[in-house]
Each structure stands twice: as C-alpha cells, then as structure tokens.
Amino acid sequence: MKFWDREKEKAWLKHYLQTEPNAILFVYGPKSSGKTTLLMKVVEELPKDDFIYYWYDLREELISDYDSVIRLFFTPKGWLKEFISAVKPKINLGVFEIEPHVLEEIKRKERKPFTEMRKRLEEDRAKGKMPVIVFDELQKLKEVYLNGDSKQRPLVRELFNFFVRITKVLHLAHVIVMTSDTFFIERVYFDSTLENTSRYFLVDYFDDETARKILLSEGLSEAQAVEVVKMTGGIPWVLMEVLKEEDPVLVANELYKQTKSKLIELVRSNESYKNVLKKILEGENMYGETEEGLKELVDREVLFMDPVNGEVRFQTRMHERAAKQLLGLQ
C-alpha cells in the first residue's frame, strides 16, 4: 500500500520507540486503516543499527495449538543467516534462534519458552540494540491454550504476562500489538491485570480534507476528488483502488454499491440489525449497550467499536451512506 500523509502519527511512534520500554503498545483501528503500513514506514526510517525487530504477522500463520505457536516463535540455529541473505530486509530482522536440542526440550515443555526469549532479548540489549516485538492481529492466538486443554491457561494471558515483564518490569524491549478486532481490545482494555501496563494508539482512516488532498496530488480533478471522498471517505485501500482506473468516480460508485448490496443482504437475515443502525444514525452512542445485533454488526465490520474513546460508529462512509438509503433516511 502506498504511504500518504501520516507525519503526526509517524512522529509519535518514532518518539515512542526511542524512549525506554515501559508499557505494551496497542495499535488499533478499523480494518484497512493502514496500521501495518504506518508501522513499517516508521521502522524503516528509524536508525537501522539501533533496533532489531521480531515481527509476527499472524494473518499469514495457521495457529491451532501449542506446537504451532512454538514453531512460530522459534527456529533452529543457522536459519536466520540464510534468510537474511535471501530476503535482504530493510530492517534488522530478528528471530528467536536456538539450538535444536533446546527447541525439542521446549516442545516437550521441559524448558520455558519465555525464558529463552528473554535471554535473546538481553543479548540484543548487550549488543546495544533495542528489541521491538511486533504482533499483527495477535487475537488469532486467543483460542490457543498452553496444554491444549481449554480448562488450562490461555496462551494469550501468558504472553501478556511476559510482555508486562519485559516492558514494565525489566524495560528490556518494546512490544507492539496491532489489531482491528476491537472486542479483543475491549477485553484487554478492561482487564485489571493489565491496568497501568498498556498504552493505546488509534490509526484511523484519513479525514475528508486529507483524502481530498491525496487524490488531488495523484492527478484527480477537484470535482473527481470531492465526489470520491463524498462516496467513500478516506479509506487508504479504497483510495488505492480508485487511483488504478481511468474513471475513479465510477470505481468509487461500484465499491459503494458492493457495500450497500452486502448490507441489504445482511439486514434481511436479522431484523434487529435495522434497529441498531437506526439508533446509530440518530446519534445514539451505543457503546456498552447489549442490544441484540450490535455485537454481530461490529464482528461483521459494519460498525466500528472504539473502547478507548467509548464510542460505536460506522466502519466506513460507505456503510453509513448505505444504512441511510436502506432505512429511507437519505
């Protein structure tokens, strides 16, 4: 995804990563708001030799049990050198490389995985590098249990205990968790065991004026830019799509029609959805409500819930316009 106009967010994140670790940072926001793109831009612009990054994109991983998590975290010694020479990443990429026999002991639960990870982080700091652990869509681990038994400790809880120790207690490494799952953020935000150990950073869509300026800078006319923003808002992914075609307004309209069609089909399946959409359109703040259909509309990414700011709103401009038309309010 092309990078546009995130100077304020970049400056905040750069400053944060250059301070002493003292909290888990949750970077959250609507789907396709540019969270990963923003963070990648930030780390590419920071001094390469000062940092080492352990980056886990869980969207690309099949995680089902303890063994698959161990395979995600650890790799036998010697792998990293071959990978770096082949890929040549723009950042100092780290992996938790360990001797094969140690890896087998971890799999057999004869060694604690987090102890081995902490040792590597301490080695990084001894070499003058700041470790940064990044998890993209960490909520994929929420159904995994340490012993494969749902009556046992959830892996995510153990991970957070480890994160608190290496940030808040030992000030050893930065930990960044990125997610668009706001129910996951809500559970974390109100978890008393994580109180005073976490910070939250919202990466939202571009506002209308910024989106208009972006489209103008890419060669659209004023009329085209205004019409696209009116229909779709400032979703980075949508801006990329409309700029690929000769008629950006037509593409924006097609994307809107697709959103509207999906919403119509969804509402047909559950009448309670109409009541929720109507209340949102009338300006009612439904955050914290338990009304039927609200959670499903958030899960289906029609609505976006922000637990940090205590609000529920439409996921995109297109969803809001579609809901207005559907309910005869436009």
SS-based structural class? Answer: alpha/beta
Mean pLDDT level: 88
Low-confidence stretches: none
Strand order of the largest sheet: 2-5-6-1-7
Structural domain count: 2
Can you say what the CATH homologous superfamily of the largest domain is? P-loop containing nucleotide triphosphate hydrolases
Tell the overall outline: globular
**Under CATH, the topology of the largest domain is which?**
Rossmann fold
CATH second-level architecture of the largest domain: 3-Layer(aba) Sandwich
Count of individual beta strands: 9
From the structure above, extract its key features:
two-stranded parallel sheet; 330 residues; 2 domains; Rossmann fold; alpha/beta; five-stranded parallel sheet
Q: Any chance you could write out the topology, listing elements then pairs?
A:
Layout: H1 7-17, E1 24-28, H2 35-45, E2 51-57, H3 66-73, E3 74-76, H4 79-87, E4 96-98, H5 100-107, H6 113-126, E5 130-136, H7 155-169, E6 174-179, H8 182-189, E7 198-202, H9 208-217, H10 222-232, H11 236-243, H12 248-269, H13 272-281, H14 294-299, E8 303-306, E9 311-314, H15 317-326
Parallel strand pairs: 1-6, 1-7, 2-5, 3-4, 5-6
Antiparallel strand pairs: 8-9
Helix pairs in contact: 1-2, 9-10, 10-12, 11-12, 12-15
Task: Characterize the structure shown.
There is one protein chain. This protein has helices spanning 7-17, 35-45, 66-73, 79-87, 100-107, 113-126, 155-169, 182-189, 208-217, 222-232, 236-243, 248-269, 272-281, 294-299, 317-326, and strands at residues 24-28, 51-57, 74-76, 96-98, 130-136, 174-179, 198-202, 303-306, 311-314. With 330 residues, it is of the alpha/beta class. It folds into two domains: 7-202, P-loop containing nucleotide triphosphate hydrolases (Rossmann fold, 3-Layer(aba) Sandwich), CATH 3.40.50.300; 208-326, no CATH class. The chain has a five-stranded parallel beta sheet. α4 (79-87) links the parallel β3 and β4 (96-98). The longest helix has 22 residues, at 248-269. The chain is globular and about 65 Å long. The chain starts with 6 loop residues before the first helix and ends with a helix.
